[in-house]
Design goal:
Length: about 325
């Protein structure tokens, strides 16, 4: 009888299936890195110009953004999309990053890498390792792949964007729709190639990419009740797919406050008061609340325990540890 009722329910109210054109796609919450949708997320592919996110990140973290860069012979090797800077032109590093991200300037990528380090690609790979991008290899700062391109996965690129998005300079750059600049040789007006920034109200920035080998690649961030990132690789209908995934995330998930530092209560009788310093939120569906479990681990310290860590609140989702929050005693 139960099976008959279930079949009738599915026939009357069919489960919604997300149909995407992408070969690989991911929807990830940037605060917790929880994957909310996945399709071939660990498949290694050429990622084209969305790899410029790493180039921008290295430049921003270099601490040299206000430095003036004199453009040299390095741009002789530039082809494809560009901002069309000239030899002898003086331009600040931060302006090159704007040209890199808004216009996907391959000449800007070469100028940035040449200025920062002769070992720039190694810096990119070291940073990827530190972020946890275990299936990523960078071979150049632009993403061009006629020779040795940049290879990654939808999952790794979502990790990269989640990390980079925490930097307020990076957030400002990718959210910029129009940028004006005057150098010793030219005046530029750059418009952001990422049309989702103008056509989807929740979009907060991103990066486009295309080569014949990689096809269309795209990464975008959006904020409503969640802070989300979508990555699609080899996707002929990427603008629509990104909107579809963002709407799926916003309509089905919300941040659930699992730990409340103002109402933290434990039954431990050894200490007069136990407290935590942070709230903790996790994106879940309403139907998933019962999948959350908290296990408290408290150790007894006999002397001088005031305001010292005495344990942890271990949070599990579907029996997987997702967070540890330190517990302190008074």
């Amino acid at each position: 009888m139960k099976k008959i009722v279930l079949v009738l329910f599915i026939l009357l109210f069919p489960l919604k299936v997300i149909a995407l054109s992408a070969n690989s796609a991911i929807l990830m919450d940037m605060k917790t890195n929880r994957v909310l949708y996945k399709k071939n997320i660990h498949s290694i592919k050429s990622v084209a110009s969305i790899s410029k996110i790493m180039t921008a990140l290295i430049a921003i973290e270099s601490g040299k953004l206000d430095d003036e860069v004199i453009i040299g012979d390095e741009i002789d090797n530039s082809y494809g999309s560009g901002i069309y800077i000239k030899k002898g032109e003086r331009i600040k590093l931060i302006d090159l990053v704007y040209g890199l991200m808004l216009r996907s300037g391959n000449d800007a990528a070469l100028a940035i890498s040449n200025y920062i380090s002769d070992d720039f690609v190694n810096l990119m790979n070291l940073k990827a390792d530190s972020i946890g991008m275990i299936n990523t290899t960078f071979n150049n700062p632009s993403g061009l792949d006629e020779e040795d391109g940049n290879f990654s996965t939808a999952y790794d690129m979502a990790l990269l964007m989640s990390y980079a998005y925490k930097n307020k300079i990076f957030r400002k750059i990718i959210s910029t729709k129009k940028y004006k600049l005057k150098t010793n040789m030219n005046t530029y007006i750059w418009y952001n190639k990422n049309k989702l920034l103008s056509t989807y109200k929740y979009c907060t920035g991103g990066k486009t990419g295309y080569t014949k080998k990689a096809k269309r690649t795209l990464i975008n961030t959006a904020s409503n009740n969640l802070d989300l990132v979508v990555v699609t690789l080899n996707d002929p209908n990427d603008w629509k797919d990104h909107k579809t995934l963002f709407e799926y995330g916003f309509n089905n998930f919300k941040y659930y406050k699992i730990l409340n530092k103002k109402k933290f209560i434990t039954k431990d009788k050894y200490y007069k008061k136990l407290y935590i310093k942070n709230n903790y939120y996790y994106p879940i569906k309403d139907s998933e609340k019962n999948n959350i479990k908290i296990i408290y681990k408290i150790k007894k310290i006999r002397f001088n325990y005031h305001n010292k860590k005495v344990g942890t609140a271990n949070i599990y989702f579907n029996d997987t540890l997702i967070h540890k929050e330190s517990i302190y005693a008074k």
